[in-house]
Design a protein that fits this description.
Layout (H helix, E strand, L loop, with lengths): L2 E3 L18 H12 L5 E5 L7 H21 L7 E5 L12 H7 L2 E5 L4
Parallel strand pairs: 2-3
Antiparallel strand pairs: 1-4, 2-4
Helix pairs in contact: 1-2
């Protein structure tokens, strides 16, 4: 569908730290991008609704940047990846529960190439 939530990534509230280890979603995305060098993605970071909008936009961009760094470490050329953040402006569920806030702390990969 041109976009995917990288569901196996977990970010604690207020953190952009991506734990060391293997992530199936990143391995699959890296494999796809390496075999399709004409394709590119925008990584869009998201947060829960805790804190200010400005702080959350900065945090969400750092989360996307952490994923970008991991993908380049897996051999994906930086020219195929762009990292952005939208803070809490695009939740996928309610922020009224811890489960909802956890789901909203995510990074999505959006296919941005048009070729």
């Amino acid at each position: 569908h041109g976009r995917a939530v990288l569901e196996d990534l977990e970010f604690p509230t207020g953190s952009s730290r991506l734990e060391e280890g293997d992530y199936t979603s990143l391995d699959l995305l890296a494999g796809y991008l390496k075999t399709h060098p004409d394709r590119s993605v925008v990584l869009v970071g998201h947060t829960d609704a805790e804190g200010s909008l400005a702080g959350n936009i900065a945090l969400s961009k750092k989360r996307a940047g952490a994923v970008e760094a991991r993908l380049t470490a897996l051999g994906v050329p930086a020219s195929q990846i762009k990292a952005e953040g939208v803070g809490f402006l695009s939740p996928i569920t309610s922020n009224l529960t811890e489960e909802g806030r956890e789901a909203n702390r995510r990074v999505e990969a959006i296919l941005s190439s048009v070729k």
